[in-house]
Design brief:
Helix-turn-helix domain-containing protein, alpha+beta, four-stranded mixed β-sheet, 4 strands
Length: 89
């Protein structure tokens, strides 16, 4: 029997679609380019972080809706970033 994860469905009301909306606290999801603006890093850095994450530890960090659209769960992404703290040492 397989395990099924219940993932919250992204909605327009819970997703940051424009960098101007970053100050809004009630958003749950963001596009990659918005996340890059939020953390002041390049798009390639965000994609590298997403490609390197361990999906067994962080299964709900992003939702891939198409080959060109990933919506990132902001709360889970923060947990992932904190887990990477000082891993470079």
């Amino acid at each position: 029997m397989s395990k099924v994860l219940k993932i919250e469905v992204p909605t327009k009301e819970k997703t940051i679609m424009d960098p101007k909306e970053i100050a809004m606290k009630d958003k749950r999801f963001a596009k990659v380019n918005t996340l890059a603006t939020l953390y002041d890093v390049s798009y390639s850095t965000v994609y590298r972080w997403l490609n390197n994450l361990d999906e067994t530890k962080f299964p709900r960090v992003y939702v891939e809706l198409s080959s060109s659209l990933r919506l990132i769960n902001l709360e889970e992404f923060d947990k992932y970033l904190y887990s990477m703290h000082k891993k470079y040492l």
